[in-house]
Amino acid sequence: MLFILTFVIVSTARSADDPGTLLKRNFELAKTALAAGNLSDAEHRFGQVIALGLRQLGNLSVSESRFGQATHEMDEAIKFAPGDPDIAVDAAVAWFRAGDVKKARQLAQSVVADYPRHARAQNVLGRIDLYRGDFDAAIRDLQASIALDEDFETSYFLGIAYLKAKRFADAQQWFQRLHVTMGDSAALHVLIGRAYTIGHLPEPAVAEFRKAVQLDPKYPNAHGLLGYSILEFRGEEAYPQARQEFERELKVHPDNFHALLLLSCRGSRSSACQAATS
Questions:
Q1: How far apart are CA 72 and CA 214, in angstroms?
Q2: What count of other Cβ atoms lies within 10 Å of the Cβ of residue 178?
Q3: How many CA atoms does the CB half-sphere of 66 hold within 13 Å?
Q4: Which CATH architecture group holds 184-278?
Q5: Cα distance between the two ends of the chain
Q6: pLDDT at 266
Q7: CB of 138 within 8 A of CB of 20?
Q8: For residues 30 and 55, what is the distance between their CA atoms, to the nearest angstrom?
Q9: Model's pTM, two decimal places?
Q10: Is pLDDT at 28 greater than 60 in this prediction?
Q11: Hey, where are the domains in the chain?
């Protein structure tokens, strides 16, 4: 769960405006203000340039897993642009990756309080709440984000939040909506199957992974995940059937390390299975 959340929360660390474009724009405006003798505006614009530069450095540090450095750079950026909501949300992501969930949530909450229509802030706050286990709050946050700016990843995590909150009917309806929106594909069935696995619902997970391998027998990890879900659903007595799926996975992807681990599974809670599906 942590791996999936951290992976996706990093992928949302982008704002609608490209930071490089904003930096260049503010630098040009600062030079114009300085040439016109407007020292107050020039000072403000140069502060924005420094803040945006620090923000880019912070995001680069996050991408390189240098989280301590990233939080320092983001905090310095906030000092130069304390009212910039995009920098604050990037800082929330950096602090989350650094392991300080409380501070990350405070930063995201502050943006939502001041900018209730900031979709990305609602998005990040919802994913933090999902990680914290506050599923009702996560659902509210993610619904608010989708209402402002719908995208697939946020919609997918809303489905997971429904599952974690044990709102199974809502989750199924929401995933069906994704099918209509995105179209039928092995990739989508695997993602939804993973969501059911996270929600500890092996029966619908098996159904989704079966659909995935029917659509694309060579889709990466589909056979392996199907075998794992069969074990979780039916127990160790289903190992022969699960093993067939692990072997099919290795036949199409012989270098798949996770499939090799899954082949040693004798039950869905074995250490090999847990490692292979984490």
A1: 49
A2: 17
A3: 11
A4: Alpha Horseshoe (1.25)
A5: 7
A6: 54
A7: no
A8: 18
A9: 0.82
A10: yes
A11: 184-278
CA nearest neighbour of 213 among 201, 227, 203, 198: 227
Q: Encoding tokens for residue 56?
A: 């880019």
Nearest-angstrom CA–CA distance, 92 and 100: 9
160 is written with which tokens?
């997971």
Residue holding tokens 């604050």?
88
Please report where in the chains the tokens 């000092």 appear, as a residue.
Answer: 79
How far is it, in rounded angstroms, from Cα 5 to Cα 256? 23
* Residue 104 backbone dihedrals phi, psi, to 5 degrees: -60, -45
pLDDT of residue 23: 73
How is residue 219 written in tokens?
Answer: 């889709």
Encoding tokens for residue 48? 């924005």
Rounded Cα distance between 8 and 1, Å, is 11
Assign 3-class secondary structure to the chain. CHHHHHHHHHHCCCCCCCHHHHHHHHHHHHHHHHHCCCHHHHHHHHHHHHHHHHHHHHHHHHHCCCHHHHHHHHHHHHHHCCCCHHHHHHHHHHHHHHCCHHHHHHHHHHHHHHCCCCHHHHHHHHHHHHHHCCHHHHHHHHHHHHHHCCCHHHHHHHHHHHHHCCCHHHHHHHHHHHHHHHCCCHHHHHHHHHHHHHCCCHHHHHHHHHHHHHHCCCCCCHHHHHHHHHHHHHCHHHHHHHHHHHHHHHHHCCCCHHHHHHHCCCCCCCHHHHHHHC
Residue owning tokens 């429904």: 162
Would you say residue 22 has pLDDT above 70? yes
Distance of CA 187 to the CA centre of its chain: 16
Confidence of residue 192 (pLDDT cuts 50, 70, 90): very high
